[in-house]
Amino acid sequence: DYSEEVRKMTNLLRSQIYKLFHNTIFWAGAGLTICSVLFYAVFESMKAETVANGMPLFQYYSILFQNYSTGLPVLIFCVVFASDDFMSGAVHYYISKGISRIQYYLSKMITCAFAATLYVVIAGISGTIISQILWHNLDGLLQINTLQLLFFFFSQIILHASYASFLVFTCFLFRSSVISSVVNMFLLIFGFYIVHRIEDAIWNSYVISMYWPVAMFQRVQVMTVAEWFSVVAAIFVIYGVLLTCIGIIIMKKRDIK
Predict the structure, then answer these.
(1) Are 77 and 23 in contact (CB under 8 A)?
(2) What is Dmax (Cα atoms) for the chain?
């Protein structure tokens, strides 16, 4: 019955979250996020303009998610975490224990989206601390509208969770961590540029590429987040809802043996 299905889903999510926090790759990704934030902060601090004028906190937040500082850790963790059960054969164990394929897919997607959210939080906290050490600009928080700042981080969480949903989809599509890693690394680095070249030649504008979550990591900024939220919402619907439904259909139809 319904209550039994809810209980199984709850227990499955608990087990997946437990695996998340005991996963070495997740913590390595957290370390990579902090190191990336530190590296790019130091790089920014060496620019002549920053040396002369410092770095306003809202401006630093706006570049916080550029240069794959969170995108790469999310990619690595999600690909490994979502593919691992296929590689080890553990997916057969879950299905044999009465877990439905829908529940299994959703548990992986939700856990990876949660991990992506944690990476955004880690980047935000570490970035604030590093920014304060380098530029002593914590008082800049008083110059930023609190709701606007929360809206910015909320948008980044939606974008990262949507990207995690896409990664999980590719893992269930290919069922190989190697193939998924190669495909997603290529898309992370070159996807936006290839699509933009095509749309620039045809439409001379960002018609398709702006709906790629990784591109929006960089485009959504603190002071302009409201202008882009309709695109952020559309990305959530495309990747978080529609792509998840397609992934569930594939999971239900394909032979997992």
Answers:
(1) yes
(2) 66
pTM of the model: 0.91
Interior angle at CA 154, CA 25 and CA 217, nearest 5 = 65
pLDDT tens by residue, 51-83: 666 677 777 887 888 778 999 999 999 999 999
Residue 200 structure tokens = 């620039």
Here the tokens at position 228 are: 């882009």
Nearest to 71 by CA among 139, 150, 166, 200: 166
Structure token digits, residue 44: 């920014």
Contact criterion met (CB below 8 Å) for 12 and 104: yes
Distance CA 232, CA 200 (A): 21
